[in-house]
Design a protein that fits this description.
By secondary structure, the chain is of the alpha+beta class. Helices cover about 20% and strands about 45% of the residues. It has a single domain, classed as 2,3-Dihydroxybiphenyl 1,2-Dioxygenase, domain 1, CATH 3.10.180. The longest helix has 11 residues, at about 15-25.
């Protein structure tokens, strides 16, 4: 398994208010997607991006980062082998990704994801 990208998942109370700050002030003006509860904002010049979210639509906890991998099933198996707590099981989500949430030993929850 290879990690291909890591994106911060910032908790916000309102996506529209967040867009004003992160898109306008930080220049992350490309909204790659907006599902109504999570949106990704990216700089068209540099590719720097972050996600803002109010809740997670299908998982019991909100992650602090999303880790894109090239083989999510392998990542899931490794997490289980190492005894890490799986917070959200390996799931094919309706918005086109396969993902699971794992709790790091320090308590942070990570969204490990692969585009489907």
């Amino acid at each position: 398994m290879r990690t291909t990208q890591i994106i911060a998942d910032l908790q916000v109370p309102d996506l529209d208010e967040a867009r004003g700050f992160y898109s306008d002030y930080l220049g992350l003006s490309l909204e790659e997607f907006n599902l109504g509860w999570v949106a990704r904002h990216t700089s068209p010049e540099t590719g720097a991006s972050l996600q803002v979210m109010t809740v997670d639509a299908s998982a019991p906890e909100r992650p602090v980062i999303s880790v894109k991998v090239d083989d999510v099933e392998e990542a899931y198996a490794l997490a289980q082998e190492r005894g890490y707590e799986i917070v959200h099981p390996l799931t094919t989500e309706e918005w086109g990704v396969v993902r699971f949430f794992v709790r790091a030993p320090d308590g942070n929850v990570l969204n490990v994801v692969q585009d489907h």
